[in-house]
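S.,

Sequence below, as promised.
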Amino acid sequence: MKKQLVLAAIAAMFSITAVNAQGGGGGQRMTPEERIKFTIEKMAPLNLDADTKTKADVIITDFVNGQQKAMDEIRAAGGDRDAMMAKRKEFSDARDAKLKLIFTEAQMKQWKDEIEPSLRPQRPAGAPAGGGGK
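The prediction came back faster than expected:
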């Protein structure tokens, strides 16, 4: 009985160490579906009416899926960072132009000043800008 308990404790410590060595699951990219849901939830303070919310949901879904597809293509072609940044800006500008057509001026200001910045991934304090060289 004592041996089983010791073995279980060792197995538990090994499992915990293995998970922590991999970063504990942090730093994983969100799936497109998670990004869409997260963005739509962040838009709650805009108090959109049903019609505008439906239109905004379609715009956000198209934006996330289109951007994901483009990033996957760039990664498959070798992952040029400048190309990725240009493509992200292109998609963001197109998304914002579409949102501007359905949002009021106040809602668009709130989107640009509060909501959109909160959607960008945040690096932990002290993390290098280049992603840690992994």
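Residues 67 and 90 are 9 Å apart (CA to CA).

Coffee later?
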